[in-house]
Amino acid sequence: MHAAEKKIAVRPQEEKRRTYIAALIIFVLFLVSTISTEYQPFELFANMENFWDFLFQDLLPPRLTDPQMIVEGVVQTVSMAIVATLLAAILSMILAVLGAEATCPWKPLRKLVRLIASIQRNIPNMIWIFILIMAFGIGNVVGMLALLIQSTGFMTRAFIETLDEIGGESLEAMHAVGATRFAIITQALIPACLSGVISWMLYGLEINIRSSSLVGAVGGGGIGLVMMGYIKQFRYHSAMGTILLIAAIVILVDMLTNFLRKKVLA
Q: Is the pTM value of this prediction over 0.70?
């Protein structure tokens, strides 16, 4: 057979083999997980009637009762998110300077800062809120602290990466003219990464607005606590109204932060 007459494979055999193996592994993992959790996919569809009854009879239509309490809860939720974000940004900037290669020459300190930040951001807010509630009781302060802890870990890692990306010729030039480390940080690095820092802050605010409702539901105060109170009292119509209000707040904050990124940081 001539070379021109040979069939050319659309995809290499090795790539096909890897695709089949990956699909097989995913199927096996799904099967094992389904068996271990005793999850019955068909049982879900068999009980869908109960779900629709609950949705249209107990949840809908949504109601916004107790307007004063709801307004207070919304103000508390947004305030917790803003305070936690701003405090986290300040602490994270300090920690980022100590954890970035461009600003901290001592390697053990850089590793320690990065380790602490990883622990803070990888432990969910729910865990932090349970720890803080056991120590201090329920309330808005506890909710704000839970948001602050994880936000600090998240922003510290983000700011470290931003600072490391800024390094290079500008730092070498400042070193060459004999600038001190403090001058390099305040006059070169921070101004250069300011737009990135603000962008990460806005993203952190979005996350905290979402998380503050969940944190509040387990004792952190705010609108989440109001929603959970309705659920415990079997006032599902009011709970649904509060849930939709929370969704609207999150969407508005998301639109606002996107606008600020495009118009202010462009």
A: yes
